[in-house]
Amino acid sequence: MTRTRTVRIRRARPDEAAELTALALRSKAHWGYDEAFMAACVAELTLAADEIAARRTAVAESDDGRVLGLATLEGAPPHGELGLMFVDPEAMGLGVGRLLFAHVRATAAATGFTTVRWAADPNAVPFYEAMGGRRTGAIPSGSVPGRTLPLMELTVRPRATPPEAG
């Protein structure tokens, strides 16, 4: 994929649930996980149409209308969760993840969250640390029994108004 001129963050639509689930699975598979591992992750990475709004799902969209990534900010203030955050493998390295993470941070601040926590794929820890997240421990995987994942946390500073998302 060539570098796009603009990427915008907007609210996800319920009719995009299957497309977003497929993107999350492609992104996870990018790290070389085998078929059995990926099969174990399907339920946890599936985004249902009726969950889109409640999970505060945002998408990154290219100027030609392609969905390049997604993120969800879940829970109720003051403590939230970054439930899903995935970038299409073709868009990795283009700043899409940074835009999505900045959107989640701004939305969390405007919504009254003081902390956001998440279980990180071990491959993504350097990215999250670069974005200001810090590793605070480990948490059991929701998909693979016996596997633990890095637990990350971000302290959020309050903001007056939520960011616009489409």
Automatic annotation (TrEMBL):
Keywords: Acyltransferase, Transferase. It is an enzyme of class 2 (transferase). Its EC number is 2.3.1.-. This is GNAT family N-acetyltransferase. It comes from Streptomyces citrinus.
